[in-house]
Design brief:
Blueprint (H helix, E strand, L loop, with lengths): L3 H15 L3 H8 L12 H5 L6 H6 L13 E7 L7 E6 H17 L7 E4 L7 H13 L2 E4 L5 H10 L4 E4 L1 H10 L14 E5 L5 H11 L2 E8 L4 E7 L6 E3 L3 E6 L12 E7 L10 E7 L1 E5 L5 E5 L4 E2 L4 E3 L2 E3 L1 H9 L4 E12 L2 E10 L1 H4 L3 H19 L4 E5 L14 E3 L6
Parallel strand pairs: 3-4, 3-5, 5-6, 6-7, 18-21, 19-20
Antiparallel strand pairs: 1-2, 7-8, 8-9, 9-14, 10-11, 11-12, 12-15, 13-14, 16-17, 18-19
Helix pairs in contact: 5-6, 8-9, 10-12
This protein binds 5'-O-[hydroxy(phenylacetyl)phosphoryl]adenosine.
The site of 5'-O-[hydroxy(phenylacetyl)phosphoryl]adenosine (DLL) has 21 residues, from α6, β7, β8 and β12.
Length: 420
């Protein structure tokens, strides 16, 4: 367990490192912090202004790096929806640290050097593929660097190479699961036992769907490029939440930036310990969760966060009501007879916001009578209204008509932009 003094020492090391970047020197000087020793208490630390994605954009591409380019050996970036990507850099030690963090998390899941790990996260600027790859190698497992896509081949290799651990986004896992039959492969021919899924929000109901289709235990992995990549936190098999690795200091803040007590949901803000190339100092993740401190029977001691329930900027405001896509997912998946694929379309008709939810029918319910389909439609509408308080239009669509994702799924289409 980390003592208060160890925590402060860790935070001071990070402050010392970020002060190598002129941007942070200026930013911290404005609140009276000129060197690491100025952080004497946790309150001093909390005076430090938050860092945002926008800070990275303004210092594009390498302005927030805290080591000279000579010491940087890898670049990753995340694309975001607008403008330039946000760029991060890693020293050789950072890459080793990242691999150790992922490997430790995998070990807690009982994954060993005997496992065959298929990495179906995208390789490239996205941190998913290479981040998991290096962690799995560190563990000494057999790594299959598939990257995303090429679904039929993924399944063939999964069977022929005896993959035991699958790593990809939950939406791609679902797609792989539903493609098994088409590829002429039965679940029983596979040796899958654990799936490590993340990079996008998903619900417990989605977890059950994936587990049933692929015959594995699915766990949630969280991370973001700005603080490292996958591995910031990872569930263990006890299912009490995602254990945050000890190289990250989490805070959960309310919209005014005040710290929230354990168990209350707010925005997760992360500071890294001992990351050199691109240290993160009070980085606003925009992800919503709650945290608690304690010891788990799996051996982890420290902070544990709950599954991400949404993003500050994912929240849809429809006729003044706040709605998260995860609530819609929960509502839809609590009704039988449909596939776990959906698309939320938000639009404006005159002055009024309207929400339409496209839900895919399963092959069997597609053959049902109109009356049964109408009943199904109204049950889904009712569930959405119960959970969100909003009436939505529900459109049942043909099996396989909603586009599948090989990476992060797109669940929302907001057509209101530009309309008054
Ligand atoms: O998605 C890193 C990653 C790769 C995590 C593979 C897990 C597995 P970015 O592309 O920078 O990095 O996107 C980070 O994705 O702020 C969250 O909004 C979302 N996200 C990541 N993991 C989860 C998760 C990677 N388990 C952004 N649940 C984050 C919900 C997640 N959202």
């Amino acid at each position: 367990m980390m003592s208060q003094e160890e925590l402060l020492n860790g935070l001071r090391r990070t402050v010392e490192q970020v002060l190598k970047a002129p941007y942070y020197q200026k930013k911290l000087a404005e609140v009276g912090i000129h060197y690491a020793g100025d952080i004497k208490t946790l309150d001093d630390f909390r005076k430090i202004p938050l860092t945002e994605k926008e800070d990275l954009r303004q210092n594009y591409p390498f302005g927030l790096f805290a080591e000279p380019m000579d010491n940087i050996i890898r670049i990753h970036a995340s694309s975001g929806t607008t403008g330039k990507p946000t760029v991060v850099g890693y020293t050789r030690e950072d890459i080793k640290l990242w691999a150790r963090i992922v490997a430790n998390g995998f070990r807690r899941l009982g994954i060993t050097s005997k496992d065959v790990i298929q990495v179906a996260y995208g390789y490239g600027l996205f941190t998913g593929g290479m981040g998991i790859h290096y962690g799995a190698e560190e563990l000494g497992a057999v790594v299959i660097p598939m990257s995303g896509g090429n679904t039929a081949k993924q399944l063939m290799i999964m069977r022929d190479f005896g993959t035991t651990v699958l790593c990809c986004t939950p939406s791609y896992a679902l797609y792989l699961g539903e493609s098994l039959a088409e590829a002429g492969i039965s679940k029983d021919e596979l040796k899958l036992r654990i799936g490590v899924f993340g990079a996008e929000p998903w619900t417990d109901k989605m977890r059950k769907e994936i587990e049933a289709r692929l015959g594995l235990t699915a766990v949630d992995i969280y991370g973001l490029s700005e603080t490292m990549g996958p591995g910031v936190s990872l569930e263990c098999l006890k299912g009490i939440g995602l254990h945050i690795d000890e190289h990250f200091y989490p805070e959960v803040l309310d919209p005014q930036g005040n710290p929230l007590p354990e168990g209350e949901v707010g925005e997760l803000v992360l500071t890294t310990f001992d990351k050199m190339g691109f240290p993160s100092l009070r980085y606003r993740t925009k992800d919503l969760t709650s945290i608690s401190y304690g010891t788990c029977v799996c051996g982890h001691t420290g902070w544990t966060m709950q599954r991400i329930s949404g993003r500050v900027d994912d929240m849809l405001i429809i006729r003044g009501v706040n709605v998260f896509p995860s609530q819609i997912e929960e509502a839809i998946l609590s009704v039988g007879g449909i596939e776990p694929h959906y698309l939320i379309i938000v639009d404006r008709e005159g002055p009024l916001d309207i929400m339409e939810v496209l839900v895919e029918l399963s092959a069997t319910s597609f053959e049902d009578e109109i009356r049964e389909l109408e009943e199904l439609q109204s049950r889904i509408r009712q569930r959405i209204e119960n959970i969100t308080g909003l009436s939505a239009k529900v459109r049942l669509v043909e099996p396989k008509s909603i586009p599948r994702s090989e990476g992060k799924a797109k669940r929302v289409e907001d057509r209101r932009k530009g309309k008054i």
